[in-house]
Amino acid sequence: MSTGMIIALAVIVAVVVVGAVALIARGRGRHGGPSLRRRFGPEYERTVALHDGDHQAAERELTARLERHGELRERPLDPAERQRWADRWTAVQERFVDSPREAVAEADRLLAELAAVRGYPDGERYEEQLDALSVHHAEHVDGYRQVHRAARTGAATGAGTAESGAATEELRSALLGARALFDDLTSTEPGRHRASAGSDRPGSQAGTRSHGRSHTPVLHRSRPKES
Question: Which branch of life, at top level (predicted)?
Answer without folding.
Answer: Bacteria
